Amino acid sequence: GENVEQHPSTLSVQEGDSAVIKCTYSDSASNYFPWYKQELGKGPQLIIDIRSNVGEKKDQRIAVTLNKTAKHFSLHITETQPEDSAVYFCAATYNAGKSTFGDGTTLTVKP
Amino acid sequence: EAGVAQSPRYKIIEKRQSVAFWCNPISGHATLYWYQQILGQGPKLLIQFQNNGVVDDSQLPKDRFSAERLKGVDSTLKIQPAKLEDSAVYLCASSRLGSPLHFGNGTRLTVT
Questions:
Q1: A38-76, pLDDT tens digit by residue?
Q2: Which of A86, A59, A75 is nearest to A18 (CA)?
Q3: Do the Cβ atoms of B42 and A98 come within 8 Å?
């Protein structure tokens, strides 16, 4: 089955700096890669996703890149703000069905 | 649209007791998932339903866990008997076919 590895497990940045979280996947059949943000006491919320026919996608301060050959994808957050502090999960799936998740990155943005 | 509803939010039980969790998915979402999230880890799929049929339950510990989705809408997940290692957050998610997952806020289970 699919295996997703996520790094780093914790990340601390100053407000205004950029944050990068990286994931690798094992199953070449995976073609949909969502990113979720999970705040304390809440379920994961989708923040951005990318499909395998696209190399990069951007939504305001958030961008995701995908390298299918290397089987890795990354989340980039620019101009970080304290409200970006949360746990971020990457996931890999086939046709947006059941997802295999990484173990999460705890992002702390220091004011 | 209303989100995925789960109850209860918290549950504390002793080992060997039984517990049940309830999930009401977003209206019109045919696919429903139960995930287990152990502290410090990502969610792990337990079972996936398509309408009221099971699509994947390969990771469900069937000797103690059971789940049903009657009439293809609400779902319940049951654990009997519970073990200490079942302490986790149980997340329900729903989606339309080929669309992203929408998660509820989960039920935090503590087994003492």
A1: 999 999 999 999 998 889 999 999 999 999 999 999 999
A2: A75
A3: no
